[in-house]
Amino acid sequence: MRSRLVGCLAAAAVLVAGCTGGEPSSSSATPAPPPPRQHVEPPTLEPIKVDPSPLWDSDSIPLKIGYHQRFATRPEIRGDTVILFGTGDDLRTSALAVVDAPIGKPLWSYREGERLRSGKGEAFVSTGAIKTVDLPGGRWGVLVVFGFPTKPYGLVEARGQALLAQDGQVLWTSPIDGSLTAMAANDKTVFTWRGSNADRATVAIDIATGKRIWDNIGSIPYAVASGTVVSLRPTPETAGGNLDDQAGAITGVDSATGTQRWDLGARYPKARPIATAGHLVLVHTDYAKYEARRVIVLDARTGTEIADLGEAPSDACGGDGRTIVACAVRDRSAPAYQYDLRSVRADEGRVHISARTVTAGRIDGIWAGRIFLTDFPMGKHPHGTTIVDREGNQLSQKLLMLGTAAVSDTYVAVQQPSGVGPIAIHRIVR
C-alpha cells in the first residue's frame, strides 16, 4: 500500500528535514480538506462469496489454539497453510501451530518450552508475537523467540530470535538479551523489539544469516514502508504497558543503516501508527484506544503529512500493506450508524470519500482492494461482516461471522472482534 507533495518550497523543506533527521516542516503539513462526495460508481471489483460453514476451527486441533492477552497475534495464511499462535489447551502457556488449511491437520507445532528441531538445545518461548517472513525461492519462515530451560524450575527465559523453516526446522538463531517481539520485516531484514523500559531498542537482523546489523535505542518498530522503519518512541506514561496501549513520538529510521530520517515527536507527542500501504502510513495523532481521534496519512520516506482523514477510532482504520489505507468516519450529516469510507491509494496520494455510506464502523482488514467491515448487534440488527469496495458498494451478502482475522485468495480466518475464543477457517467459493 505513492504520494504527491504540494509546492516546490514545501518539498524542499521536507527533504532538508529528512536529511537531517529532524521534524518535517509544518508549512508542508496542512492537508487539503476532503473532496465532496462523488457520484455513485458501480462496483469495479468482483463479488466474493464465503462459505458460511467453516472447514474447521482451532478448538478441533489437538493444541486448541485460542487467545491470551499477552500473545495477541492474528493468524496468518500462506497458500494452503494457516499459522496459529495463542494460548494452548492448558489455558496458561502458549503454543504455535502450522496447520493444513483444507483439513485442519497440524503439520507441525511447538508448545511453550519444547525443544526446537535441529537446534542446539534451544526451546520455544512465547514472550511475544510470532511473525512469518518471505525467504528466497518463494519459501517462507516463522520468526520465534528461543531460550534455554533453567534449573530447578524448568522455566524458559528469552535469549534471542530464531528463524524456523516451513517444516519447523531451525535455520538460524540470533542471541539477544531481553524480552523480544518480532514486529516488522522486509525481504532482507527483520526488525525486533527488545522490550525493556531501561534498554528498549529496535534490533535489525539479517534474514539470510541471523547476523545482528544495528540497534536503534529507545524505539519500537511498527512496520517497514519504502525503506523506512516506522517506529514508536513511547511516552513515559505508556512505556511499561501493553503494546496495544502505547503511544508517543513516531519516527522514521533508515532500514539499512538504523539512522533516523525524521521525528514527529514535537508536533504529535502522543501518536501511534495504525497501518501502512506502500509508502503511506496511517497515524492517530493523539492516540486513545477505541476513541475517535484525528487520523492523518504520512509519507514514510520524509514524514510529511499528505492527507487528513478526519476523526476515527483505531479499529475503524486499516491498510493492506501495499496499495491502500482507509478509515470508516462517522457521517454526522446522516442518520446514526452511517459512515464514510475515506481512503488514500499509494498511487494517488489524495483523500477519496466513498460515494455510499456504510453501516459498519469497524475495518477488520483490507485485501486486494476489498474492505472487510464488521458491525455489532443492535436490536434486530445482527452482528456480521460485509465486504465492500472503496465506494461503499457491497461485494458480498452480509456474512453472519465474527470479525475477520486474516484473508487470502482461498480462505478467510474469523474470530470474535475482541480476539477471544477459537479461530474458524472458511473457504472462499469461486
Automatic annotation (TrEMBL):
Residues 21-53 are annotated as: Disordered. SUPFAM superfamilies: Quinoprotein alcohol dehydrogenase-like. InterPro entries: PQQ_rpt_dom, Quinoprotein_ADH-like_sf, WD40/YVTN_repeat-like_dom_sf. PROSITE patterns: PROKAR_LIPOPROTEIN. Residues 163-307 form the Pyrrolo-quinoline quinone repeat domain. Residues 21-30 have a biased composition (Low complexity). Pfam families: PQQ_2 (PF13360). This is Putative pyrroloquinoline-quinone binding quinoprotein.
